[in-house]
From TrEMBL:
<keyword id="KW-0274">FAD</keyword>
<dbReference type="GO" id="GO:0016491">
    <property type="term" value="F:oxidoreductase activity"/>
</dbReference>
<dbReference type="InterPro" id="IPR051169">
    <property type="entry name" value="NADH-Q_oxidoreductase"/>
</dbReference>
<comment type="similarity">
    <text>Belongs to the NADH dehydrogenase family.</text>
</comment>
<protein>
    <submittedName>
        <fullName>NAD(P)/FAD-dependent oxidoreductase</fullName>
        <ecNumber>1.6.5.-</ecNumber>
    </submittedName>
</protein>
<feature type="domain" description="FAD/NAD(P)-binding">
    <location>
        <begin position="3"/>
        <end position="283"/>
    </location>
</feature>
<dbReference type="InterPro" id="IPR023753">
    <property type="entry name" value="FAD/NAD-binding_dom"/>
</dbReference>
<keyword id="KW-0285">Flavoprotein</keyword>
<keyword id="KW-0560">Oxidoreductase</keyword>
<dbReference type="Pfam" id="PF07992">
    <property type="entry name" value="Pyr_redox_2"/>
</dbReference>
<dbReference type="InterPro" id="IPR036188">
    <property type="entry name" value="FAD/NAD-bd_sf"/>
</dbReference>
Length: 355
């Protein structure tokens, strides 16, 4: 009996399960999924959980049930490639025949003093809950700084504005304009939304220090009652500690078939994998589709295709509160209610297929 172990219940490994269960799992294969929490989390919606506009229950999806799927809830301590086993904290080790590493990411603080100690995060459901508690309990007219104006920073800033119109919110953007790698039309639309809704945007920001009640942007000091960090990610610490070849961002270099170059039984999916695209839930799902194809061929001792299809992403969709949104889909910029409706539809479809 072959044993497939999936580390992490994120978007990539959920897609692996969706494609293998219930009818495409060979009779001689069992699966063990390891995750810290007993449900799949909709990480793309953590911004709304932290802002207090949706409940905790709305970002959770139950893992599937199957007679040959074993669920283990605990923290991974080490991936022992030499002995083909997963070392867990306070639990017995788990041996594997095939392994998919999908442990996700953590905040990257870029060596900014005080950033890790004095900022709040939305990189895990536990941290998003803690951020919600802080933001929801703040007195009126409190000052909140959000460092990083990528998709997460934009969405939490806009959602928090709707949730707490009494707060003073400042968004610090490292670029000359919001989403500088996308059409200027999107940048202007998002910037105008923030101006119209009383959110201050600081472009060309360079945060050099964070204190419990202040943010230092070069020589300028901004008093803050709370700071949320959305200014970069890095692979999970377990992955960072692995003795394998990585890229400059600490992500694991993989073969064209998504496995370690010297180990065809160990695959890497999502934020931990070195890929030519920025990490995203969409990319993890596309990658997982190909990993399942490779696994099934190897289990059947069939030859692999000479080349896997290029992974093509459909675009991005983001929200500006509950009524407005923005996106870049099929090389077209879209804004307003249509973009927000599309994002809500994508989320509904995901829950429908995985629920």
């Amino acid at each position: 009996m072959k044993h497939l172990v999936l580390l992490g219940g994120g978007y990539g490994n959920m897609r692996v399960l969706l494609r293998l269960l219930p009818n495409n799992l060979p009779e001689d294969v069992t699966i063990t999924l390891v995750d810290k929490v007993p449900y799949h989390c909709l990480k793309t919606e953590y911004y709304a959980l932290a802002a207090g506009t949706i409940s905790d229950h709305e970002v959770r999806v139950a893992f599937p049930e199957h007679s040959r799927l074993n669920l283990v809830f605990g923290a991974v301590q080490e991936i022992d490639l030499e002995n083909k086993r997963i070392v867990l904290e306070d639990q017995e080790s788990i041996p594997y025949d095939d392994l998919v590493i999908g442990l996700g990411c953590e905040d990257k603080y870029h060596n900014v003093p005080g950033a890790e100690q004095y900022t709040h995060s939305i990189q895990s459901i536990e941290k998003a809950r803690h951020t919600y508690q802080t933001l929801s309990n703040m007195p009126a007219r409190s000052k909140v700084g959000i460092v990083g104006a990528g998709l997460s920073g934009i969405e939490i800033a806009s959602e928090l504005r709707e949730s707490r119109p009494d707060l003073e919110i400042t968004l610090f953007d490292r670029g000359p304009r919001i989403l500088k790698d996308f059409p200027e039309r999107l940048s202007k639309y998002i910037h105008k939304w923030f101006v119209d809704h009383g959110v201050t945007v600081i472009n060309n920001a360079n945060i050099v220090n964070v204190e419990p009640k202040a943010i230092y942007n070069n020589e300028d000091v901004y008093e803050m009652d709370a700071t949320v960090w959305t200014a970069g990610i890095q692979p999970n610490v377990v992955v960072r500690n692995m003795n394998v070849e990585k890229d400059s961002s600490g992500r694991i270099k993989i073969s064209p078939y998504h496995n370690l170059p010297d180990d065809e039984h160990v695959y890497v999916v999502g934020d931990c994998a070195s890929l030519p695209h920025a990490p995203s839930a969409q990319l993890a799902e596309e990658q997982a589709e190909q990993i399942v194809q490779v696994l099934q061929k190897r289990w059947k001792n069939e030859p692999l295709p000479e080349k896997l299809p290029e992974m093509k992403l459909k675009g991005i969709l983001g929200s500006l509160g509950k009524k407005q949104g923005f996106g870049f889909v099929a090389d077209r910029a879209i804004t307003g209610r249509v973009a927000r409706f599309l994002k809500s539809g994508v989320l509904w479809l995901y829950k429908y297929h995985n629920g």
